[in-house]
């Protein structure tokens, strides 16, 4: 049976703020760093999709939101809505606050509604910052959202947004920030019940993370390091059999 959702509406104030925010933040990032973006041709021209990124520090979300061709909706830890300075920005931009590690059906329904309404959605499957370049194990929730929304994933690897990025930039060190955009990924269907179903969701989440890892330097891959990136394609083929 097809699920029914209310249309997700972006507020007029958020639309106006985004039109102002994005060029301003692009200017800031260009001033503080050398920006390199690869794979823009992989971004769908229309329709909904989920943008999945590695998450080292507070800098990846604004970097993506500033330079992505369209202004995506974004998921963030609820703590951001309570931090001085950051809270003002996220409230003006608009976003979906989540409690890390907690299952909240209402929030998941909102994310699925965003995608059903045709909007791109930005999420970090790790569920929080890694604080070091190496990726942490991701949570299976992202695969559950994809299962319900039936949209492709756009894997994105971000390089250079370490926690000392701003401090070093203010000292005059213009580092290179890279956004590496992979091709659309359609996840295998999930079947079964109970434990079998949970394993399938985790497997699909790990597949997303391996695709992100394939876009990153070896020191950024963390728990998703592989000796041969070709094994990702082999793994994907085995999932689809």
Summarize the structure.
The protein contains eight helices and seven strands. With 241 residues, the protein is α/β, with parallel strands linked by helices.
Structural description of this entry:
The two termini are 25 Å apart. The protein has 241 residues and is α/β, with parallel strands linked by helices. The C terminus is likely disordered. The chain is 40% helix and 15% strand. It has one domain. Strand 3, helix 3 and strand 4 form a beta-alpha-beta unit. It has a 7-stranded mixed beta sheet with strand order 1-7-6-2-5-3-4, with helices on both faces.
Which key features would you list for this structure?
7-stranded mixed β-sheet, 241 residues, alpha/beta, disordered C terminus, single chain, globular
- Continuous helix count: 8
- Rg calculated over all Cα atoms: 17 Å
Sheet with the most strands, sense and barrel status = 7 strands, mixed
Total E-strand runs:
7
Strand content: 5-15%
Q: N-to-C terminal Cα separation, in Å?
A: 25 Å
SS-based class: alpha/beta
State the helicity in percent bands. Answer: 25-40%
Low-confidence segments: 232-241
In the sheet with the most strands, the strands line up as 1-7-6-2-5-3-4
Quote the average pLDDT.
89
Q: What count of structural domains?
A: 1
